[in-house]
Design a protein that fits this description.
disordered N terminus; 9% helix; 6-stranded antiparallel β-sheet; mainly beta; 240 residues
């Protein structure tokens, strides 16, 4: 997994940051860093799916305040490099075990910062496991009898995106025990990624590490970082 952390470097504790510059994405809704509510697009077929980059799968246990298990399941996440523009798409799916007590009404993801995001969902064979014999990458579920589509997505802050399933009241629209979500899609204008987190929410909240976009320092930033590290080395040599 790539870990490209922006460093804070020396002498006055100079904070280094960079903003990724890229074109906006035309597909979907919920573009830009401002809070919004999106009518989700059903991308039944993603023609520019791209190349698999990274994937992770977690066994999930949701506990309430009394430490009672309200649901268990499987959370899958993957990163793909979009074949159309070389930018990154993030995919998520939650399977709620049949033995769970609770349904899931919301799934949230962090940290998307100020990146442009477009959201949707699909039941497409993301892993490419049908017909061609391609090795399974993340084991996304495509053939579940009940695959719930999200009702809306929102971006309550720059960093957080969320998918709602129903209105939180009507159980039939949630991810009920024995059901799975459609594959949730977040298309971004990022070209690099790092660790993020995903939470499944209802009577309990379970949060696990997944992926999130990250900026790459510009050449000038690298030069400043290098100069600071060299200066630190000289100071240490003098002290010795």
């Amino acid at each position: 997994m790539k870990n490209n952390t922006l460093l804070s470097v020396l002498f006055g504790a100079v904070s280094l940051s960079a903003t990724l510059s890229a074109g906006t994405i035309s597909l979907g809704q919920c573009a830009g860093p401002s809070p919004c509510v999106a009518t989700l697009d059903n991308w039944a077929s993603i023609s520019n799916l791209g190349t698999f980059v990274d994937g992770i799968t977690h066994s999930v246990t949701g506990l309430n305040a009394e430490n009672q298990v309200l649901y268990t399941g499987t959370l899958r996440s993957a990163v793909y490099r979009n074949s159309l523009n070389n930018q990154l798409d993030f995919y998520y799916q939650f399977v709620n075990n049949a033995s769970s007590v609770d349904s899931i009404s919301r799934i949230t993801m962090t940290n998307f910062g100020t990146f442009t995001t477009n959201v949707g969902f699909t039941s497409q064979d993301i892993d490419g496991t049908t017909g061609g014999g391609t090795p399974v990458k993340t084991n996304f579920v495509q053939d579940a009898t009940l695959m719930q589509a999200p009702s809306l997505a929102n971006r309550p802050s720059q960093g957080t995106l969320g998918f709602n399933f129903g209105d939180g009241v009507i159980t039939a629209d949630m991810i009920n025990p024995g059901e799975t979500s459609r594959i949730l899609v977040i298309r971004t204008n990022a070209t690099n990624y790092n660790n993020g987190s995903t939470s499944t929410i209802n009577g309990a909240i379970a949060t696990y590490q997944t992926f999130a976009p990250t900026a790459i320092p510009e050449p000038g930033t690298y030069a400043l970082m290098g100069a600071g590290l060299i200066a630190l080395g000289l100071v240490r040599r003098k002290q010795q």
